[in-house]
Design a protein that fits this description.
CATH architecture of the largest domain: 3-Layer(aba) Sandwich
Bound molecules: adenosine-5'-triphosphate, magnesium ion
Strand order of the largest sheet: 2-3-6-1-7
Largest sheet: 5 strands, parallel
Radius of gyration: 23 Å
Number of strands: 9
Distance between the termini: 64 Å
Structural class: alpha/beta
Length: 352
């Protein structure tokens, strides 16, 4: 047996799955192999990278843990990757938990009281922490203390337990949902934005090298342009192109293989995924281009409003396909054009 092939785990992907921004368990294994391990390897996001490197270097220089760090941005842009890099740059270990995994304040108290000096505690989806846990976290982050409640009812008492200095790295796709007191306890907030095509090309070149694949430059350009500004999607499409080259091509990852694979997986010219297209189509064909409220739009495509708002909308807005107005979401002329539809005469007046 040779080296285990991480991508062997990714073959279950159904056609439509080639573009969604989220990752499932199987994909996470494939991703782990491609994750940058240091800030220097981390492509793009120059502003966040610069700021973070200052925070980390200063902390290392002082020999003390840095301020707590909050990372926000749409799925697949590198929040978990950065959390791992932070721990690596600080030469400490990373403890991982998530908002939904913490049901009770006691669960969080147990995690906190087991931390060692200087460790990094990564709390993914931190906006989904339950309120009592959130309140416990405020105190822990600020005073490095948890109050352990002993007993019940009137006889209950709180025994303060002091904690070692540690650093919380919180990740969220919805920074706006974090209550202000929690947000304020982060000394540094980094907002990750969609990557440019050129940055995604660099991600692809790096990933191809790690996969031992020879990616033609024009193929990299093609894949980057259809990756929805998202490294996770770029890496996924690269693996699909590699599959195509291996099974139907001559093994080379050239432009022809890229075109053919992207066709098989029905990745459209802008790299929109199924949810993106469903939202656009509903907006144009069911609601005549809007304006329509977020909740109505979400019900029409069978998704939670939160998913539409955090997963599909940011990219559609950034690509100039959807606009947000006080009366609801509207399709832009570019949206009609992208779907190959003719906008009704009044659609253009929404933007005049
Ligand atoms: N700046 C980058 N340079 C190179 N690769 C990257 C970069 N950012 C992300 N990636 C790749 O994209 C994959 C997804 O990134 P990551 O898991 O960090 O996203 P995330 O923001 O945590 O997403 P989610 O919100 O779904 O948890 C990683 O496996 C990594 O290989
Ligand atoms: Mg993540």
């Amino acid at each position: 047996m040779g080296e285990p092939d991480v991508d062997a785990l990714g073959i279950d992907l159904a056609p439509g799955r080639a573009t969604g921004a989220g990752a499932d368990e199987l994909e996470r294994a494939a991703e782990a192999a491609l994750r940058p391990r240091s800030l220097d390897e981390f492509v793009g996001q120059r502003v966040v990278r610069d700021q973070l490197s200052l925070v980390l270097d200063a902390a290392v220089g002082r020999g003390a843990p840095p301020d707590h760090v909050l990372l926000s941005g749409p799925p697949g842009l590198g929040k978990t990757t950065l959390a791992m890099i932070i721990a690596a740059e600080l030469a400490t270990s990373l403890r991982v938990t998530s908002g939904p995994a913490i049901q009770h304040a006691g669960d969080l108290a147990a995690v906190l009281s087991s931390l060692d000096e200087g460790e990094v505690l990564f709390i993914d989806e931190i906006h989904r922490l339950a309120r009592p846990a959130e309140e416990l976290l405020y105190v822990a982050m600020e005073d490095f203390r948890v109050d352990i409640i002993v007993g019940k009812g009137a006889g209950a008492s709180a025994i303060p337990l002091s904690l070692p200095r540690f650093t919380v790295v919180g990740a969220t796709t919805r920074a706006g949902l974090l209550p202000a007191p929690l947000r304020d306890r982060f000394g540094f907030t980094g907002h990750l934005d969609f990557y440019s095509a050129e940055e995604l090309e660099r991600v692809l070149v790096r990933s191809a090298r790690l996969l031992g694949a020879d990616l033609a430059p024009d193929a990299a350009v093609e894949i980057a342009g259809r990756s929805r500004g998202t490294p996770r999607i770029a890496n996924r499409l690269l693996r699909r192109v590699r599959d195509w080259a291996q099974v139907r091509g001559d093994g080379s990852l050239d432009l022809q293989a890229a075109h053919a694979a992207l066709d098989v997986y029905q990745v459209d010219a802008l790299g929109l995924d199924r949810l993106d297209r469903a939202v656009l189509t509903a907006l144009c064909t069911r609601f005549g281009g809007g304006p329509v409220g977020l909740t109505t739009l979400a019900v029409t495509v069978g998704e939670e409003p939160e998913t539409v708002e955090t997963v599909a909308e940011p990219y559609l807005v950034r690509e100039g396909l959807v606009g947000r107005t006080p009366r609801g979401r509207v399709a832009t002329p570019a949206a009609w054009q992208h779907l190959g539809l003719t906008p009704p005469a009044e659609a253009s007046t929404l933007f005049s």
